[in-house]
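Give me the fold.
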Amino acid sequence: MEKEMDAVKEIAPLEEAKPEKEKKKKEKKPKKEKKPLDAAAKKKRRRIIMFSVASVLILALVVKNMFFKSETAAFVATAGAVSGEIEQTINTSGTVTTEKSKSYFSDVSVKIDSIPVSAGDSVKAGDVLISYDADELAQEKELAKLKAQSAEGSYLNSVQGNNEKLGDLNEANVNLEVLDQQIKDTEAYITNLNHKIEKKKSDLSYFATLLQITLIEEADSLTEDERVEIEKQVELNRYEQEHNKEIQGWQDELEVYNKMLSDYQEYRSEMKSQKSSADAGKMTAGAREELEAENQTKEIESADSLESLEKAEGGVVAEFDGVVTEVNAVEGGSAAVGEKLLKLDSTEEVMVKISVTKYDLDKIAVGQEARVTIASKEYQGKVSKINKMAETNNSGAAVVGTEIEILNPDSDVILGVEAKVIISTAKEENAVLIPVTAVNVDMNGDFVYVVEEGILVKKPVVTGISSDTMIQIVEGLSEGEQVVTEVTATLMEGMPVMAMPQQ
């Protein structure tokens, strides 16, 4: 604004240089009465006004031109848009760990003879980590064999006992069936004998009755000899009733069969007791299955115990190359079954655990290449795992656990140390590139300032991927254009500038 006023001041002296005559003309003269203007006068007056306005506008343009011409061009740092390759990366750090780890537990209760390793030692697959006392191992083996034999004997005794009970039960069932039939037949025979005896006695009694009737009814008609004869028959019948051989034989036989029936019934009672005892002592189907399962379990346990003891003779052996990270056993102490002895971490399957922020989460993906630096030595890596659940770090920010697999680990890798990780998230070739600092943002989006013929020009751009220093321009710029790399508040589109290209 001061420059504009100076320009106006330069024009002002022209007024002072006018002749004195013109000054005198400007002196006040007595006012004359105004006369109404006709149409021609009015038209002339409008032309004068329009000319005056135009003159003012021209003067303003002249002043503006003088101002800008007198303004000194600003110096701006620039860089030319170039074509090249760009890689977008995530730079972070994490802890070296392993994907494979094994804790060794004791399978035997035996004294530990020696522990040739310590925490931090590197070992190879097949190396002995712990050895057991040989004498105690031999004793435990013999004891395990005896236990196995005892278990087998107990099982066989149980099976034999059950078989005996089953035999007694079968015997009782068979005997009871036979005895029931024998008792039935004997009872029927006894009934028949009793029937025969009673019939014989009834017949003799009936005959005696007839003889008595004959003596009574025919007493007058009988001769003495006939009467005597009948009385002899009566007496003989009486004797027969008391001493009949047939009846006596039947009675003797009856006594034998009654004794036989009693024996049968007594033996039947014994068989019923045997059946009850055998039935109560025999195993149910479920008990037999349980016994069989228990025996099989003991057999497996015995076999496993013997196998563990035989295996323990060779000691605890490393299953892979790695580093001993824990030693819990004590040399000379006794290890109990299930006791943790030591821990071995693999150096063959190594990874770095990192945390990714939400700002980088959309850039990272499984399979991306990575460069891992451990103690100044670089290794090849790749993103192997991205957790599906975020965690909260010490600062309270949400982060996602991510694993970087080291593809070419060696003996120089140290577990537990910090490692630097650079993840390659994107690459572009033949891309238009400019410094990151050249890109600015306003309400309309990204833009840059370019220098065209000494004038500052604002250009909207579409950006792509970026590195730490460069950014890809997808749309809006061409290779070779000079962009302003350091934008200040004093820069305005259209102002003259002088480019200062930066190396």
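The longest strand covers residues 418-435.
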